[in-house]
UniProtKB/TrEMBL annotation:
GO terms for cellular component: Arp2/3 protein complex. WD repeats lie at residues 50-91, 140-172. It comes from Elaeis guineensis var. tenera. Belongs to the WD repeat ARPC1 family. This is Actin-related protein 2/3 complex subunit. One of its GO terms (molecular function) is actin filament binding. PROSITE patterns: WD_REPEATS_2. Component of the Arp2/3 complex composed of ARP2, ARP3, ARPC1/p41-ARC, ARPC2/p34-ARC, ARPC3/p21-ARC, ARPC4/p20-ARC and ARPC5/p16-ARC. The keyword Iron-sulfur does not apply. SUPFAM superfamilies: WD40 repeat-like (SSF50978). Its main location: cytoplasm. It is found in: Cytoplasm, Cytoskeleton. Keywords: Actin-binding, Cytoplasm, Cytoskeleton, Repeat, WD repeat. Functions as a component of the Arp2/3 complex which is involved in regulation of actin polymerization and together with an activating nucleation-promoting factor (NPF) mediates the formation of branched actin networks. Arp2/3 complex plays a critical role in the control of cell morphogenesis via the modulation of cell polarity development. Functions as component of the Arp2/3 complex which is involved in regulation of actin polymerization and together with an activating nucleation-promoting factor (NPF) mediates the formation of branched actin networks.
Length: 376
């Protein structure tokens, strides 16, 4: 199985992020430490171990323009790390949370970042130059449970969230003095901060891994019921499709083009979904060919068959009820994949390389061209 580079960094990796030039990777080995490695002379060398959080780091994002790292943790805190000479210096972010921070993502323009939390709250953080600190504005009383995922629309204003209440929501995050009125967000920048634009009730279970397509026309997220949901034209006249698959649920998703998406999760094997010329989304294949070639155990086959029968029927919108046989374990990843990150070069609109990390402590770099043709 060529074009997959696998690196065993720890016993377990919670999350990871790449530096702007893709030569360094930052990850959390399932504790309160932030490890930074650099690829030097055909091998990975540990450069830094950053200590500031008191509990597990649950989210990391590395800005592409400003070279800042933001981390969030179960200790309810967030830090923005700036590189000064050879050291990384942390700046505390005022989140005002009473529960764990669970996820984080920089906005496209990197003048804001969003934090999802177990406090049913989303913190949109920005830098106050006059006070030299990071502050947050809170989106409260909109979620009924923990916020598991956040995703920025390309216009830098709209923010999508997923929650364990089973819903996906879209909010305006326009902040006066931070976002210009000519931000290109159509009517979005006329809305007040925290105003809810859409609430999608497609899933009856926990929802994870929300993402926008490169041009922002399509929104996708995964349910814990082994379904994935695609919504077109969220702002104007939304239309939804539900794709059911027999295998285990997804935890994260990534658009590699406008008409192709990779999903990762409990099946330990990336799944490819694609839209045809009519816009109908469906499951295409698994990426890990080594794993799919192996034979499954009798118990695994029985479990997958029962799982597929239980969740193989779509409830909302258009659907693809055809499901593939379950794939056995044993391949690149040996445990749940919790994180998928694009390895995009500057100016690229199509993702040809991406990385995954999981509870097995492995970080894998995938070359998508070797697996499936990318739609143009």
């Amino acid at each position: 199985m060529a074009a997959v580079a696998v690196h065993q960094f720890a016993q377990c990796i919670t999350c990871h992020a790449w530096s702007p030039d893709r030569t360094m990777v930052a990850f959390c080995p399932n504790n309160n430490e932030l490890h930074i490695y650099k690829f030097i002379k055909d091998r990975w060398e540990k450069l830094h171990v950053l200590y500031k959080h008191d509990q597990i780091i649950s989210g990391i994002d590395w800005s592409m323009r400003s070279n800042k790292i933001v981390t969030v943790s179960h200790d309810r805190n967030s830090y923005v790390w700036n590189q000064e000479a050879s050291e990384w210096v942390p700046t505390l972010v005022i989140l005002r949370l009473n529960r764990a921070a669970l996820c984080v993502q920089w906005s496209p323009k990197e003048n804001k970042f969003a934090v999802g939390s177990g406090a049913k709250t989303v913190c949109v953080c920005y830098y106050e130059q006059e006070n030299n600190w990071w502050v947050s504005k809170l989106i409260r009383k909109k979620h009924n449970s923990s916020v598991t995922g956040v995703a920025w629309h390309p216009n830098n204003i709209l923010l999508a969230t997923t929650s364990t209440d089973g819903k996906c929501r879209v909010f305006s995050t326009f902040i006066k003095g931070v976002d210009p009125r000519d931000s290109g967000a159509s009517s979005s920048n006329e809305l007040k901060f925290g105003e809810q634009i859409a609430q999608l009730d497609l899933s009856f279970t926990w929802a994870f891994g929300v993402k926008w397509s490169p041009n922002g026309n399509t929104l996708a997220y995964a349910g814990h019921n082994s379904m994935i949901y695609f919504i077109e034209d969220v702002e104007s006249s939304p239309s939804a499709q539900t794709v059911a698959f027999r295998d285990l649920p997804l935890r994260d998703v990534l658009f590699v083009s406008e008409r192709m998406l990779i999903g990762v999760g409990f099946d330990c094997n990336p799944l490819v979904f694609a839209a045809d010329e009519t816009g109908l989304w469906s499951f295409v294949k698994f990426l890990d060919e080594k794993k799919t070639a192996q034979s499954s155990s009798k118990y695994g086959s029985q479990f997958s068959e029962a799982f597929g029968k239980l969740y193989g029927q779509s409830k909302h919108g258009a659907s693809n009820d055809a499901v593939e046989p379950s794939r056995p374990r044993g391949g690149v990843h040996e445990n749940c994949i919790t994180c998928i990150v694009p390895l995009r070069k500057g100016g690229e609109t199509v993702v040809k390389r991406f990385s995954t990390s999981g509870l097995d402590g492995k970080l894998a770099i995938w070359e998508l061209d070797d697996y499936i043709d990318l739609p143009q």
